[in-house]
Amino acid sequence: MATWSAPGKVFLFGEHAVVYGKPGIAMAIKPRVFVTVRKTRRPQRAKSPYIDGCFDAMGVIGSVYINSQIPSSSGLGSSAAVTVATLSAINDEFAVGKSREDIANMAFEIEKTVQKGRASPTDTTVSAFGGIVLITGGSRRRLPPQSMHLVIGDSMVSHSTSKMVEQVADLKKSNPKIVDPILDAIEGVSLAAIHHLNNPKELGRYMNMNHALLDALGVGHPQLSRLVLAARSAGAFGAKITGAGGGGCMVALCAKPILHRVAHAIQACDARAIVTGIDTEGVRKEKNV
User: Which residues sit opposite 274 in a β-bridge?
Assistant: First the structure.
């Protein structure tokens, strides 16, 4: 049997805009999904279309066991991490011979199929390669890794990524003169932020701007707003929705000494706080116990 793990991610900038070919910046984070795959003689259909998609894409049959540190449906890339780790474990167990780049591309195709064509390659790229990744259209470029101190606030409100992406698409179709300039502004924020990745104070300001623009797109949620304001009040440099919105998570950028103060402020709003930082490894093989 083979066990592989892949990290989750936060979107630092550009979610929703990336769907329309604009730049997005995402970062791999410490929480991981662990997937163990074994060869079996009889096909075992998983309850997840992502996992079934992995076995179908690799053309093999086997059993799978998953242990996740990432809450699902929260905007932290859990489905991408599961897909990348499952493909990697199958690749290893069955000696298929795929490269990390192949795995990332296959995982994206599976996500796109499950999410009815509306997925972005961001999550699967970040999960496969780790670090900070700039996504623009079809191109993916790793940015220099930075030591960022983050607190993620899980609102505990579940949401559907595909539903939120569809909601923005409908709004864009009915109000292009409003939505297009918002997407352009998100692009402007992302491009400006690239030059300040090592300046937390300035980066925080851009995160706050990005959050306001996402709110304008209608992907906010009252509980997310509470968490963002609580984090900023506790001293975070900046805080914003991460991922599709409508529930799920927000992320706050902090100075190291106040990480736990910000985490407590988020917990006081009946949310789960995850103190984390960058993961530079991406998908990796684990030693089977």
Answer: 152
Of 273, 8, 271, nearest in space to 127 by CA = 8
What digits encode the pLDDT tens for the residues 189-245? 999 999 999 999 999 999 999 999 999 999 999 999 999 999 999 999 999 999 889
**Residue 56: active-site member:** no
E strands, the chain, in order: 2-13, 24-39, 62-68, 132-136, 139-143, 149-154, 238-242, 249-254, 272-276, 284-286
Contact (Cβ atoms closer than 8 angstroms) between residue 253 and residue 207: yes
**Token match 């990332």: residue?**
104
Catalytic annotation, pick one of 123, 154, 215, 279? 123
Strand partners, 240: 251
Where does residue 176 rank: exposed (0-12), middle (13-18), buried (19+ CB within 10 A)? exposed
